[in-house]
Automatic annotation (TrEMBL):
PROSITE patterns documented for this protein: PROKAR_LIPOPROTEIN
Protein name: ABC transporter substrate-binding protein
InterPro entries: ABC_SsuA_sub-bd, NrtA/CpmA_ABC-bd_dom, Solute-binding_3/MltF_N
SUPFAM superfamilies: Periplasmic binding protein-like II
Species: Cytobacillus spartinae
Family, similarity comment: Belongs to the bacterial solute-binding protein SsuA/TauA family.
Residue stretches in coiled coil: none
Length: 336
């Protein structure tokens, strides 16, 4: 009898051990900390709204700590994604494509916004049309960034190119928050600005819009910002990615349904991250040039990538078959 009791106890302990192992496997599938990256501009409002409303926390649960990091350009963002300093976040499609093409483990898992790229010239510069850009100095956030490719694609079609590929335009890079001062000081002739900086420059300096947001290449169709994660993160923690996408979708829906409150959240977040407080007039104008969506126009992405190759931002003809992963935005099980 004692022997049977001992065997029964051993069996029960083994069974408990199996259950514990299962529980441990479930726990390891979650993350104790998730870091979300984004830029402090209006194309990245979904991250600001999700942050303010606590959507990531709600989706990932109280056992997960949520942190946020902001970036001034796509290069710094992609470095952080590759090193694991961030787990997911919003970035322009340009940096995502460029890094993917050079072997980076990055996947686009949702759209975030469209539009928001505006090309302006100083009020008294004499620049009235795109053909006037030849020989001028222009500035974008980074070489090969989304706004840069949109701008250079548009100009390439009319025969105006940068010094980088044998043309006459001189290219500088810098933070969009500095563009207004650089334009007024004469350090640059043309700014290729994401919103809300374009609206701020236009209203505060009287700069003239030479190429409107909906006329620059793919102005209305190209994802201006996308939600990305690493392939490793998707493979190892798909439920975490699903939760991140679900929170992102909630944020996009909120923006569409509550534009006025979303504008207030934007003003507050940009001030906290950059020290600059945008006027409501600036935000209202910028908002007219932006669309928010978690869907992705794959054709526009491929056309943009092909142009990046033609303009020599990419060394090889791109193949983005595996870059865009739509399983999470199309999943019926995604929590909304």
């Amino acid at each position: 009898m004692k022997k049977k009791a001992l065997l029964l106890m051993v069996s029960l302990l083994a069974f408990v051990g199996v259950l514990a192992g299962c529980g441990g496997a479930e726990k390891s599938a979650s993350k104790e900390k998730v870091v979300i990256g984004y830029f402090p501009n209006i194309n990245h409002v979904p991250a600001m709204v999700a942050k303010e409303k606590g959507y990531f926390q709600q989706q990932l649960g109280d056992g997960t700590t949520i942190e946020y990091k902001t970036f001034a350009d796509g290069s710094a963002f992609m470095t952080a994604l590759k090193t694991g300093d961030i787990d997911a976040g919003i970035v322009g499609p340009g940096p995502a494509m460029n890094n993917y093409s050079t072997g980076a483990d990055v996947r686009i898992i949702a759209g975030a916004s469209t539009g928001g790229t505006v090309v302006l010239a100083a009020k008294d510069s004499g620049i009235k049309k795109p053909e006037d850009f030849a020989g001028k100095v222009y500035i974008t956030p980074a070489v090969g960034c989304t706004h840069d490719v949109q701008y250079e694609t548009y100009l390439n079609e009319i025969g105006v190119t940068s010094e980088r590929i044998g043309g006459t335009m001189k290219h500088l890079t810098g933070k969009p928050a500095q563009y207004s001062a650089m334009l007024q000081s004469g350090k640059v002739d043309v700014v290729v600005a994401p919103e809300p900086w374009a609206a701020q420059i236009e209203l505060e300096t009287g700069a003239e819009v030479v190429i409107p947001w909906n006329e620059v290449s793919w102005g209305e169709t190209l994802p201006a910002a996308v939600l990305v994660a690493s392939g490793k993160m998707i493979d190892e923690s798909p439920e975490v990615i699903e939760s991140i996408v679900s929170a992102h979708k909630e944020a996009v829906d909120f923006i569409i349904e509550n534009p006025e409150e979303s504008k207030e959240i934007t003003i507050k977040d940009i001030k906290a991250e950059t020290g600059q407080e945008l006027s409501r007039e600036v935000v209202d104008l910028a908002w007219e040039r932006i669309g928010f969506t978690y869907e992705i126009d794959e054709n526009a992405v491929q056309e943009f990538a092909d142009s990046s190759y033609v303009l020599k931002f990419l060394k090889e003809q791109p193949n983005f078959t595996d870059l865009i992963d739509k399983q999470f935005i199309s999943s019926e099980t995604a929590r909304r």
